[in-house]
Amino acid sequence: GAEELALLEQLLGLPKGNKYGVQGERKIPVLQTNNGPGLTGLMTIAAHLVKQAKKDQLLGSTVEEKAVVQQWLEYRVTRVDGGSSKEDTRIILKDLNVHLEDKVYLAGNIFTLADILMYYGLHHIMVSVT
Fold it and tell me: Which residues, by range, are in coiled-coil regions (predicted)?
């Protein structure tokens, strides 16, 4: 959560200095903002950072791309972060394999926030696979 957001900040070229914390048993990331209430949740904070970096194209260019990006961000939080068994991992990797058969990136032919956060979410799994 918080480590991924710090990596995303760096990737986006944002200055360091955001204060991240976690809340609850599931350690949901929280960003304390200077002007207003804190932001809660990986996807909410990640989208905020993308907009702060003025790289809105990472959220998708067309209505359809934006919907697909949101779909994969939701998949990341509900399935990838929620999956813990070997069977969950097998299903997740199978889903990705099928989806990416005829695509370069998750949202088609453009690199988006979904690709970044899925990479961060799956990296620890992929390094342990033979």
Answer: none
- Domain hosting residue 43, numbered range: 1-54
Same-domain pairing of 63 and 76: yes
Residues 32-70 have pLDDT tens digits of: 877 777 898 999 999 999 999 999 999 999 999 999 999
What is the amino acid identity at position 82?
G
d(CA 37, CA 32): 7
Query: Which of 10, 1, 12 shows the shortest CA–CA distance to 124?
Result: 1
Residue type, 120: Y
DSSP-derived letter for residue 109 is S
User: CA 26 → CA 59, 81, 109, 117, 129, distances in Å?
Assistant: 25, 10, 33, 18, 25
Instruction: Write the CB contacts of 125 (distance below 8 Å, at least 6 apart in sequence).
Output: 89, 93
Give CA–CA dist 101/37, Å, rounded. 42
Together in a domain, 125 and 64: yes
Instruction: Report pLDDT digits (tens) over 121-130.
Output: 999 888 887 6
